[in-house]
Give the backbone structure.
Amino acid sequence: MNAPARSATGYVLGIDFGSTTGKAVVLEAATGRMAASAVSQKGAVSDEGVKAALAQVFGDLGISPKDIQRCVATGYGRRMLDIADRTITEITCHARGAVSLEPSARMVIDIGGQDSKVIAVDEAGLVTQFAMNDRCAAGTGKFLEVLARAVNIELARMGPAALAAEGSVKITSMCATFAETEVIALLAEGCDKAVVLDGVHAAVANRVMGLVSRVGQRAPIVMTGGVAQNIAAVTHIERALNTRLIIPPHAQVAGALGAALFALDDLRTDGVSPRLLDPKIEGQVEAVEAGGMPCAPACAQKTGEQPIAFQRAPGA
């Protein structure tokens, strides 16, 4: 089969260098249309995932990095990418991407491999307030991954298995390490695997509820990130919040899409509108990343500290 014809169209690129996956989105510079997207998992904060995602989108379009007119990177490893013209924090990029996928969104729940975020947005896609659980696996994809191993089930089968449970059990430990011990003990006592898995997903929803309470629930709510593909996690979060979640197409690449949209802004206007890129929010996120935080909520029970939450001052 012949290779696809090389297009003369220019492109912009958004990269989300996440904690466990690399995501890439390519937009046509002329139209803003999504031309290609890819997700690749190659290990913790590994540039191999980004390389694989880039190879896929470039291959799908029959282009090379020379065809990219502007690139913006986000995510944990964003500063490791030489291809990026600049970097923007994941809170801002996830908000921009989610609102692009679902313009009605007023809250974004993003659960990734190593962190979870709840972001309030206005009608323009500007972040007004956010809360994030960083430096801790509680309620994240890593939490689910650890407990999938504990019950000896494939990660992709966790959700359907949990929804088949007849009964419920409460997982009291949110620390992944302690929860793993608790799950093993429940199984040893003869507790049904599906019931244990149901309790695991209920614990994730409870963690999300804590973040939502710090921001203040509003609707419609869009869920993005890899955990948005887990039907039991979505179901339990919907029950906890008493509302339906919107899971848009391309939910896992929302951060990369937001980065690509900022790259498109840069190309078209030689600078991003301050309505969409708030320096105060950017500074707050940078401060969280630089300073770290306690291992919440398990450590919060001892220290009294809570997950980080910020909001934009009125009129800012």
User: Anything to note?
Assistant: DSSP finds ten helices and eleven strands in the chain.
